Amino acid sequence: MNTSHKWHFFRSGGFDQVRLETGEDIRALAELDPKLWAALSCPVNNLEFDRKTLEFLDIDQDGHIRVTEIIAAVNWAIAMLKDPASLLEELPQLPLQAIDDSSKEGAALLASAKQILHNLGKGGVEAISIEDTADLTKIFASTKFNGDGIVPPTAAADTETQTVIEEIMTCAGSELDRSGSQGVAEENTNHFFDEAHAYSEWWQQAEQDANNILILGEATEAAKTAFDNIKTKVDDYFTRCSLAKFDSHASGALNPALASYEALAGQNLSAVSEQLIDLPLARIAAGQPLSLAEGINPAWLQAITTFKDQVVTPLIGVRDRLTSEEWENLCQKFAAHQVWLDNKQGATVEGLGIQRVRSILSGGYQDKILALIQKDKSLASASDAIESVEKLIRYHHHLFRLLNNFVSFRDFYTGRTKAVFQAGTLYLDGRSCDFCLHIDDVAQHSTMATLSGTYLAYCACTRRDDDTQQMNIVAAFTNGDADNLMVGRNGIFYDRQGQDWEATITKIVEHPISVRQAFWYPYKRIGKMIGEQIEKFTSAREQAVQDRAAASIADTAQAAESKAPPAPFDVGKFAGIFAAIGLAIGAIGTAIASVVTGFLSLVWWQMPLAILGLILIISGPSVLLAYLKLRKRSLAPLLDANGWAINTRAIINIPFGTSLTQIAALPPGAQRSLSDPYAEKKTPWKSYLFILLLLGGLAYLWRTGYINENTVDQLRDRVTNLIEGERSTADEAEKEGAEEMETVEPETELVPENEVDEVVTTTTPAAVIDAVVPAAKPAHAE
């Protein structure tokens, strides 16, 4: 790397980016090591950048802008400007005084800029804009000469030359002048006069052998045309007559059959009917001459009349009949003329006629028109620089912005303006996503883009007022959560021109969005799991109840038919069910009581630490994993998938990512009413009353002796007796052979006796068991 220039860098996106702040920075850009450029290549498509400027930059027209092309554009722009620092101003107009006219190219460019302004009627203006060079037709509309080597008829001062130019355009073609008018160039002008000379020389050959070629003088051409019109048909007639003379039996066959006329009888006929044109010229007979007055096929009558007047009468005298010998004589008279026609020269100008052609040649118009063309070409240097003027104007306005999106990503990471690859803003789910890219192929782009570690939503966008306008974008969600993001959701996308598009999510690439989402994710997952389990359990119990109801109805109907007495209510089993439920509630209560007792036994300053530790245990792993992933989000795969060649990692860290997606928030100073008329009505007094009644009841039972140290033992014995009584009842029923008696199975299986004893004596609070088995009496009553 050349160190002759002192560079300045800034750190952003996890890499060092060059800071372009002065004209000298731009002048020395060719010295900057390409390894320090943010990008090495970018496509000309899917960029929010001036399209015409990209065409100027893409020298090889391969659809990509590369480092060498950027350097070539910078060097050329600096050579055309007095001060390269003017590129930093990004002005839409180019001051004429900023153009460096010390070089030949610069002088031509300045002259062209002034000529453009003069042609547009802005001779006193000191700056030229892109709009001034946009329409070449407008620039040269009032000029006769514009340097393109094409002169329209209006370029000539006299009407005679203007007429000749128009005749050249008619015979030899025309070219489009920069002014938008049709004109002639040197090539088609020379071609016209070459043809004119050849045509004149060809006619001169005929004039030198007029007795054989121009047998009727100036009328020969018209006579030859009349002769050619009927020659084939007359040859056919005399050949048929000769054949009939050769064999008399052929006459009938050579004339049209009666059936041919019968086919014509039902049609509307005229002298131009094709059916008549194909019939013989006249009736065929052996050795019969051709009548020129009557008996002629109506379709050929006019042509024969013209032939008689223009050929027969002038050459052989007045005739009403033409023999085959006379016909052969006429053909011989036109033979030399036909040879002359076959060698025709200068057909391009034939339509003007020999007299007009010779008039043009004798008028010296070729030199006059070529002089006009040369005068126009003399202004080529200034006029041809018009494209260079437009290129310099566009570079002066747009080039520095491209450098800040190619050499560095200053626009993207500073947020002063949107980068050239940012397509617009997507509004969806109470958020605005500023990091959106135009894409062509969703499947192809997503394959590479998933490596960015960014939560992506691909959207199909359509204009509401025009369904034919469609495009695809990908939006990066870098703030909030993903709870309500799913395929099919709709939003509104605003492009860089402010147009709104209807956007629908078509594909999602899932990655962590924010640390906040990661913190709450475990709790949401647990809540979702519990909800799903409750839903499954509820559905299963509902189905079980329906099945039991159906079975009960069927059993009742069967018992009614058999007149069997209904099964007695099994008190033992019912008590066993409630005893098992009590044991479960007791276990849960004991666990909760243990946790609460342990928490309350802590010193006050240990309590928040305990809560914090619990939160860390639940949310810590998720937050840590999300934090590590969010720190690795990269811009490079997203742009690489769009055809860029990114030269660095270009990290999107957590703070910067948060700035790319804005969450809906009330504006500063806004007032909000917390009164919601449709909010759920809360009645906390019911809960308070229940707790007070429960505590009061427990206190009363303790004071009266219903609950004491022996209560647990008593309830254990009672539950054991109930279970044993249930078993003995079942045994007796089995011994007595009561096969028809229907028994009701308990919904919950009884806990085995040894397990009941163990749980009751170790975990079940006395108050809970007393609540489950209200038949227990105080110790002193026993």
Automatic annotation (TrEMBL):
Region described as Disordered: spans on this chain: 726-750
Transmembrane segments: 577-603, 609-628, 685-702
Bias (Basic and acidic residues): 726-738
Coiled coil: none
Superkingdom assignment: Bacteria
Annotated keywords: Membrane, Transmembrane, Transmembrane helix
Name of the protein this chain belongs to: EF-hand domain-containing protein
Chain intervals with Acidic residues compositional bias: 739-750
